[in-house]
Amino acid sequence: MSLLIVGLGNPGKEYINTRHNAGFLAVDALAEALQEKWKLNKTAKAEVIETRYFDKKIILAKPQTFMNLSGHSVASLVGKYQVNPQDVWVVSDDVALSLGTLRVRTGGSAGGHNGLKSIIEKLNREDFVRFRIGVNEPSANIPLENYVVQKFGKSELKKLAEVIDKAKEIILKSIAEGVQDTSLQA
After folding, report:
1. Based on CB atoms within 10 Å of each CB, which residue in 70, 72, 90, 153 is the most buried?
2. Structural domain tally of the chain?
């Protein structure tokens, strides 16, 4: 069995620690926990790690296509590694959840998230697992597309670190024991 765990985000130094890159932060924490290093897969347009955990082949990925085109990279990786689409796990930000919240669900709509929308379109299915990391809603005067590429404020970084650590723990536990739909606060 191969499991593809994709963290969503935008490539480039200007997007480090932005709300939209919560998925990248979570899979970076996984890579560190597994003591693995990222390698660029030019064909799939993604940074990739191939490893084993609990006797399962794990592929970690960070698409380098920018958020709205994440599905291109995910579909390429599904084909390359012959991963069943139901064995795709996607870690993303979610503005509908408060910072510190982690929600795990199998299936569902894109919920307005363009990265998830792209993956649903390219895989032609919605039944993959989502690990959604709350990043708070923008205030009424900030357009969503500007808000998600803002860096987290200093006052938010401690809560962000806690939820990223919790996401890492839940993903590792899910690999070992199976995915359980849940919602929790870090």
Report:
1. 70
2. 1
